[in-house]
Specification:
Elements lengths: L2 E5 L11 H10 L5 H12 L5 H5 L8 H11 L6 H10 L3 E6 L3 H11 L5 E6 H4 L6 H10 L4 E6 L2 H10 L3 E5 L13 E3 L4 H5 L5
Parallel strand pairs: 1-2, 1-4, 2-3, 4-5, 5-6
Helix pairs in contact: 8-9
Length: 204
């Protein structure tokens, strides 16, 4: 049976889940208020505004690439994620990405991680026009993913709960924190992504 694995990006493939607040805003805080920044980020994330609209009043068009390069540079990729994902692919797993990050930055981060081409399909909120944890996000994702053995990895419990309501799958909560959070929608809680190999029953 084909094993299907859906990866979140922020907080799983990258080490920083608070991408907008902790990575981007410190670079632009002298140009825009936090409230307006968050509003524009959300609109950009769900595809309501385009890149030029997000950067309006923050920097000139000629400076956008410089800011984006700084954003990607400041974002740390999770250690060994490339090896883990390559091990999954070489074992016959089919990988998908489901993320709320705007597509442009998501693609740049996947390129930085060296895993841009490994996913069968990438679901960006800016393409789906809806973000996590709204049910329509997961309805659109699972409509295109066919299979019975599905694993979904996310670092946010509310996302796991929302996804579980749409389609039966194995929910994997990834958190490096020592919290005791638990819920019936969560099948596994891990603090090391290497455990995905074990959970999926892959022999190395």
């Amino acid at each position: 049976m084909e094993k299907i694995i859906i990866f979140d990006l922020l907080g799983v493939i990258t080490k920083e889940p608070m991408f907008a607040t902790n990575i981007i805003y410190p670079l632009v805080k002298d140009k825009i208020s936090y409230d307006l920044f968050k509003k524009k980020y959300l609109l950009y994330a769900i595809g309501t505004i385009e890149k030029k609209d997000f950067w309006e009043f923050i920097c000139t068009n000629s400076s956008i690439e410089k800011f984006e390069n700084r954003i990607i540079k400041e974002t740390i990729i999770t250690f060994e994620i490339k090896k883990i994902i390559n091990d999954l692919v070489s074992s016959g797993c089919v990988l998908y990405l489901a993320t709320e990050i705007p597509k442009r930055w998501g693609e740049l981060l996947l390129e930085k991680a060296g895993i841009k081409a490994v996913f069968k399909k990438k679901f960006y909120s800016s393409d789906l026009l809806v973000t996590k944890p709204f049910s329509d996000f997961y309805k659109k994702v699972f409509k295109e993913i066919k299979g019975d053995e599905i694993y979904y990895i996310d670092d946010t419990l509310i996302n796991l709960i929302a996804a579980k309501k749409i389609k039966k799958h194995t929910a994997i909560y990834y958190s490096i924190e020592s919290d005791q959070a638990s819920c019936k929608e969560m099948d596994y809680k891990i603090n090391n992504l290497k455990k995905i190999i074990e959970i999926c029953g892959i022999k190395k």
